[in-house]
Amino acid sequence: MKKNLIKSFIITILLTFLFTAQAFGARGDDFYVRVRIRYPRVFNEQTALEGYDKITLYDEEDELFSLNNNLNLRIDTYYTSNYYASDSAQAVYGPYHAVLRDEFYSFEDASDAAEEFRDEFGKEFYPYLTKNGYTVCGGNFTDRRDAEKLAEDLNDEGYDAESMNGNLENIIAYSKNKPVFMYEKDMPVYFSSYNDVEEYEMLKVDSRAYRGKITLKIIDNIKLITINHVELENYLYGVVPNEIPSSWNLEALKAQTLAARTYAVWSINTKQIYDMEDNQNSQVYMGYDYEKASTTEAVRDTRGEMIYYDGELIQAFYHSTSGGSTENSENVWYDALPYLRGVNDEFSNNSGSPHTTWQTTYYKEDIIRLLNLDGNYVNNIYGIQIKKVSENNRVLECIFLTDAGEISYKKENARLLLGLKSSWFSIGNGNSFYFVNEYFPIIESEKTEIPSRGGILDLITDAEIEKTEVTGDEVNPEMGSVIGKYAVTDDGVKQINREKLSFISSNGVNTANTDSEQYNFEGRGWGHGIGMSQYGAKEMAEEGYTYDEILKHYYTGVTIK
Length: 561
Fold this sequence. Notes:
This protein is an alpha+beta fold. Among the domains are: 54-192, no CATH class; 318-354 and 526-560, no CATH class; 357-524, no CATH class. Strands 2, 5, 6, 7, 8, 9, 10, 11, 13, 14 and 15 form an eleven-stranded mixed β-sheet that branches. A hairpin with a 4-residue loop joins strand 13 (194-195) and strand 14 (200-205). The model is unreliable at 1-28, 81-89, 430-482 and 498-514 (pLDDT under 50).
């Protein structure tokens, strides 16, 4: 085992060097990605494994031994009847054990010894793999004294044993609700099974089939997570049809494949216990059962091909629908990447995407609730200001005027707070204009006929005008009283001393007398807007563009190899 671990360490160093030097660019090179599956999950979870034949266990290089074709993997801790279990019987297991100090040469030797102890003492015994090798463990007690008593009984019979508290330190494999094997949480143990039909290693996790191997890890000292170790190309079989409709033109599928492959390899981090999640936080990965023939063809036809800028792999971000233009990376996140520049994208608009335009409405109380869920302490909201917009039409700063003061959300944070499809949006019902009931320093209001610079409005406090030179629209002064309120403008806070009020916006001259009870959001596109628009790729492919032409349209200055 130690010899194998040393060999594995050396191999890891070499692979890391190759990754740095060549970015895994050679066509046909096989390497693995580590995907956290079934995420997120709850505390004290278990993982149900089902094999196509027996389930075989491996270390990082070699086959170790085989177990039954149905296993449940659990954290070595206390379980109650409230804990979800796939077993029909709700058993209670505890982290206290009696452990032999003796070491055994193999799993088979430890299994034989466990069977002898089981017959002799009438308790459950099973092999236990530690960093020192195989030994035998007895019992899963909820009371420490029970483990100590079993250890004493073993010692009385001439064996060398001790009690152990294994809470959150081990992972136990159960078969038919009985422990059959336990290992220390940091041991490199992988589970798989051979599928004769597919002629590939494959295993079902909670009834969903995955290619490759499965390993379990304990993180945050409390959570059991499931990780799929899978070859890159096989991983893509389960990604591409879940990121883009498999019925689309093959060139669009190939473009998506290269974006997904490049993103996956760029995401590999040898310092972390997994590279990606199986959801939108990384890429949607559904495993073997969701593979499609057309997307598998796209993966095979482009095997090993990835996207580079100046010889380095790019961060190949993509999204559903741009709305008419993509966005610069720094306007969504932080770094200004030369290959992630906003581009005109009429292809996306012509694609028939249902997300090209959208609208949604929030009531005042909805927005207050969302602000408070995000850690603010707000009782009332008086309005919302879009303060800054990018050259590609996406909101860069959105300000909520509340009784707790101005709350600023920048870049993607406003859309994430509100759950909007994109940050390309405008707000009706006073998005740029609102009244304030709280006290502000009084500022003399003046009549103006100058259009707003965008965002907050310039006030016209003389509501008796019939016409305006700005738009020629008639002003309807039939309003309730707004005397004593304050208005926030580009020029500061202004007190309203008139019964009626008009204001200038980008939509002309309007009238208002109260802060909005609801806000109507209208927007374009779906997603962050960076990189490739999937619906745009669809339209380009239908117009005859090849996958490399599609990628070079959305990723500035890149090469494909």
